[in-house]
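Troubleshooting log. The previous structure file for this entry was overwritten by mistake, so regenerating from the original sequence record. Sequence copied from the archived sheet and checked twice against the printout by T.R.
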Amino acid sequence: MELQKAKLMSNEELEPYRQGAKEVFDPEPGQNVKLRHVEESDVFLELMRNLISERGSAVVPEDRRFVKADKPMAAWRVIGGERFLIFPEDTWAVEYKRTARKEKGLDCSFFQRDRWTQDLQKILAGEGLIKAPSSGYRYRYDLMANGTRDSTYVVAIPAQLLENPANI
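Regenerated output below.
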């Protein structure tokens, strides 16, 4: 208004500036888009499916050994007659975070928690999306087949949940 009164700019010249200020300080109500969160079960399974489709070559088949030097991401294994995709806990945390951050429309603020990996595992184990021990939520498995079960924490996802979305 002051610029128009002082006749420094015409109304037509001021309009783009007014529109920009309105967008910043008084925006139109946007669409009610529900933000999805990385700790939700459907998001977790979707991201894990995406990860496997993108990096399937980094997953060790059931009949091959998991050797850290080869830098695998995960391995397919059968535990108690059920097939699982098993990640070393640290590798899973890095890959899950990376995959989630690439997706649009996801709230990744959960990753800012100090113990987000443990918190997320507790949620997922409670929903039956990852294998959990009889007590607690962190699962141990001798993925390298070298007797390190007691010190190897893993995230084991049932294959049926990854292969068939209807099984959720």
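The two ends are 59 Å apart (CA to CA). Archived copy saved in two places this time.
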